Amino acid sequence: MSTLLEQLIEAFRVLPGVGTKSAQRMAYHVLERERAGGQHLAQVLADAVDRIGHCVRCRDFSENEVCEVCASASRDVDQLCVVETPADRLAIEQATGYRGLYYVLQGRLSPLDGIGPRELGLDRLGQRLAEGEVQELIIATNPTVEGEATAHYLAQLARQHGVRPSRLAYGVPLGGELEYVDRGTLSHAFGTRTEIRE
């Protein structure tokens, strides 16, 4: 039976990049200096886990059925940018002047991990493309092996529905993750995206 302190340390380890030592430091810090902050963190975390779901249109995180971006009348409905994660969507939103809509895959194609088109909601994306509003599908998957395979699949899906696919230009380093690319590089790459030719 582990002690409550051991359980707290182990709980911090669910965060990415947090090992035993870091988790131990966080637990001790909360108990020694930030008990009120720890209680606030626990309450906000519990509320977020209970109340934040996914937008039915774009699959981004949202407290409502339809997120603010999808509900906005000022967004350009003929452009749809596909990203792997909510963090990628936020990076593009903050670094560029893009005013279209998004579709968040919540991952990338990875057959070895059991992630196929269905797990990424590509059936729903296909339905959205079939509605006829979207004219350009901007593919903003990460330039990794899985990201490139996903981009290829998305380009084919777009063409099936008469939508022009485009891909971010390669100012983004190969093997990198969008959320870690500096704003200038990401903005340049987004502004110089090119059409994917057959």
TrEMBL record:
Domain Toprim span(s) in chain numbering: 78-173
Write down the InterPro entries for this protein, in alphabetical order.
DNA_Rcmb_RecR, Rcmb_RecR, Rcmb_RecR_Znf, TOPRIM_dom, TOPRIM_RecR
Q: Where are the zinc fingers (C4-type)?
A: 55-70
**A Pfam family that the UniProt record links to this protein:** Toprim_4
Q: Which PROSITE patterns match?
A: RECR (PS01300), TOPRIM (PS50880)
Matches recorded under SMART domains: TOPRIM (SM00493)
User: Can you name this protein?
Assistant: Recombination protein RecR
User: What is the native source organism of this protein?
Assistant: Cognatilysobacter xinjiangensis
Q: Which gene encodes it?
A: recR
